[in-house]
Design goal:
Layout: H1 2-21, H2 26-38, H3 42-55, H4 60-72, H5 76-89, H6 95-106, H7 110-117, H8 127-140, H9 144-155, H10 171-182
Helix pairs in contact: 1-2, 2-3, 3-4, 4-5, 4-6, 5-6, 6-7, 7-8, 8-9, 9-10
């Protein structure tokens, strides 16, 4: 582990050397930000992502990574600003909402995560996962009917496409029943 850490520090120093010579090298700066994140140097990583965005304000990947980094480290107001920027920079990009929901869920901001998950459009490859997680959040908050409704959306064969095959089969009922058990409904009776 110490060898790997030493190699990581060496790689960071090499990237810094490259950037001292070519400050506008966006790819090297992005790589440096990722390495700093891996080393737990959050403020330095965020600073590098901001420098990337100063060079290329429409770098959607850096916007998203910075938003995720800020969310994961409890800097939610700054993160919200970045999520807003990500949606404005790519309004037709459905994955922004899923990534926002995942980051907010990781930051234990469940209601905010739920709101983001519910914005994931059905055409997104993440729609089934986001809808399922929305159901879990409802269930955890003891909103059982809303949770079951989310699970049923995922299992609806009319909504199932090439991107949502996982839950639209016999496995759905096991998932739903486990959610009901988790929520305290041990009867597993159909909802009224």
């Amino acid at each position: 582990a110490s060898r790997r850490a030493e190699r990581s520090r060496e790689a960071v120093e090499r990237a810094r050397h490259v950037l001292a010579l070519r400050f506008d090298d966006v790819n090297s700066r992005r790589g440096l930000a990722a390495m700093l994140t891996d080393l737990g140097k959050i403020d330095e990583a965020a600073d590098q992502y901001r420098k990337v965005l100063a060079l290329d304000p429409f770098d959607q990947g850096s916007i998203l990574r910075l938003a995720e980094l800020l969310s994961a480290n409890g800097r939610l107001e700054e993160a919200r600003t970045m999520w807003d920027l990500a949606r404005r920079a790519a309004p037709d990009e459905p994955d922004v909402y899923e990534r926002e929901g995942r980051a907010l869920l990781h930051a234990n901001q469940k209601e905010a995560a739920l709101a983001a998950y519910q914005q994931v459009p059905q055409k997104s490859r993440y729609w089934a996962q986001a809808t399922y997680l929305a159901g879990l959040i409802h269930t955890e908050k003891q909103r059982y009917k809303e949770g079951e409704n989310e699970f049923c959306k995922v299992a609806d064969p009319k909504r199932a496409t090439q991107t949502t095959p996982v839950f639209a089969d016999r496995k759905f009922f096991s998932v739903r029943d486990l959610a009901r058990l988790y929520g305290g409904d041990v009867s597993l009776s159909p909802s009224q």
